[in-house]
Write a structure and sequence with these properties.
By secondary structure, the chain is an alpha/beta fold. It is 45% helix and 13% strand. Bound molecules: uridine-5'-diphosphate-glucuronic acid (UGA).
Length: 438
């Protein structure tokens, strides 16, 4: 089939390459000429395992091309996927729909009669209806559930496909697009527009709630002398609860979960069906960042609690490992706060250095973990890259000036670090030597 993918960010670039990989003729569209030039030259503007190879393969085969022209896209495509971003509005928690609106307006003007316009962006419920009413073209909503770091796999082998459609024809076209994915046994849920839109926001709200639940348990463990990692393991054995997304730590960040739960709460309140608990999910998440800052202060060991001039090494800048995405990254948020309080902060991340430097030009940056740790007074482990887990605590002990570490992701081997002489603090565990130390 001839498909276009409008918006070539994380979602769109991945969707375009994967649709070409499935055998379709694909035209990627973006208003950003630099992005289009990079993609057409086989370069992805972000780090995503496996994507660049797939992009190149499909550029070479001629099945995948890129353009900045809606006119060309309209003339080319039978099905148009809209994959543009829906960031948080500058002045409220609502989603900013200006890119979705512009993309639909752009393609609707040029689409051939009978073409299907498919929204994949995460939008407030009601958006699909509004767009379908605004244009003389058929609309469908087909939300995306891909995770950064697993984007290719999640697109080609998703857990499920959701088709928000209002006609049999739209459902048939989507089945044709995804035929190889369906042939592999992927379940399809067909829904009306509001349900299809809500599936996406509900899924992200559930994931965020699960993380904040375990982080709230971490707060209780810190107060009561418990260990949240052991608690998570034990409750995770109950398969109604399950072990996934129960890693306590500095909390969730990224370009999706934080803004999606805010937009969802905002929209639900507008509809008169408020989701007040999502505000608490957000608040618990932000408190974990405060807690890391507090632990850093404690470990600096100054009587006045100041961090002025203390050398703080921050391991991690990306919002999660295997990504160079720093949007709403807890690691950089903590680093920036300590720096504002006068600490001398040095950050190292295996992939996200360029992005971090651009967003936080005043932080210090090191070229390796060893470099960051040199003469540090406190080490904060805030993104769980494999490289950091593999650090040898005895060797790292030689690099720092004071052996104090906070494990903000709960994956370092506490016993090994303590045995190597480190003062080791983790989120969700009490301070060594007594409960109630909060
Ligand atoms: C998330 C969802 O997982 C995807 O299903 C969804 O499609 C995507 O948002 C989206 O809306 O586009 P992603 O933002 O890539 O995907 O990241 P996750 O893997 O969900 O991680 C989110 C954050 O939660 C990270 O900061 C991670 O470190 C944190 N996290 C995750 C925890 O703190 N604990 C956990 O147990 C799991």
């Amino acid at each position: 089939m001839r498909l276009t993918v409008i918006g070539t960010g994380y979602l769109g670039a991945t969707h375009a390459a994967c649709m070409a990989e499935l055998g379709h003729e694909v035209l990627g569209v973006d208003v950003d000429a630099d992005k289009i030039a990079a993609l057409a030259a086989g370069r992805t503007p972000f780090h995503e395992p496996g994507l660049e190879e797939m992009l190149r393969r499909n550029l070479d085969s001629g099945r995948l091309r890129f353009t900045t022209s809606y006119e060309e896209a309209g003339a080319f495509g039978e099905v148009h996927f809209v994959c543009v971003g829906t960031p948080q509005s500058p002045r409220s928690d609502a989603a900013d729909l200006r890119y979705v609106d512009a993309a639909f307006a752009g393609i609707a003007r040029h689409a051939a009669p009978g073409a299907l316009l498919v929204g994949k962006s995460t939008v407030p419920v009601g958006t699909a209806r509004r767009l379908a009413d605004a244009y003389d073209a058929e609309v469908a909503w087909n939300p995306e559930f891909l995770r950064e770091g697993f984007a290719v796999r999640d697109t080609l082998r998703p857990d499920r496909l959701v088709f928000g459609v209002e006609s049999e024809r739209a459902g048939t076209l989507l089945r044709e697009v995804y035929a190889p994915v369906l042939a592999a046994g992927t379940p399809v849920v067909t829904a009306d527009f509001p349900t299809a839109e809500l599936v996406k926001t509900a899924a992200n709200a559930f994931l965020a709630t699960k993380i904040s639940f375990i982080n709230a348990m971490a707060e209780v463990c810190e107060a009561a002398g418990g260990d949240v990692a052991v608690l998570a393991e034990a409750i995770g054995h109950d398969d109604r609860i399950g072990p996934k997304f129960l890693r306590a730590g500095v909390g969730f960040g990224g370009g999706c979960l934080p803004k999606d739960i805010r937009a969802f709460a905002h929209r639900a309140a507008e509809l008169g069906a408020p989701l007040g608990f999502l505000r608490e999910v957000d608040a618990i998440n932000m408190r974990r960042r405060d807690r890391v800052v507090e632990l850093a202060r404690e470990l600096c060991g100054r009587p006045d609690g100041s961090v002025m001039g203390a050398r703080v090494a921050v391991l991690g800048a990306a919002f999660k490992p295997d990504s160079d995405d720093i949007r709403d990254s807890p690691a950089l948020n903590v680093a920036a706060r300590l720096q504002l309080d006068g600490a001398d902060v040095t950050v190292y991340d295996p992939q996200a250095m360029d992005n971090a430097r651009k967003a936080f030009p005043l932080l210090g940056y090191a070229l390796s973990a060893e470099d960051a740790l040199r003469r540090a007074d406190v080490v904060l482990h805030l993104t769980e890259w494999a490289e950091f887990r593999a650090l040898d605590p005895r060797q790292a002990r030689q690099w720092v000036s004071r052996p104090c570490v906070v494990d903000g992701r709960g994956v370092l081997d506490a016993a090994a670090w303590a045995a190597a002489g480190w003062s080791f603090r983790a989120l969700g565990r009490s301070a060594p030597g007594g409960e109630g130390k909060r």
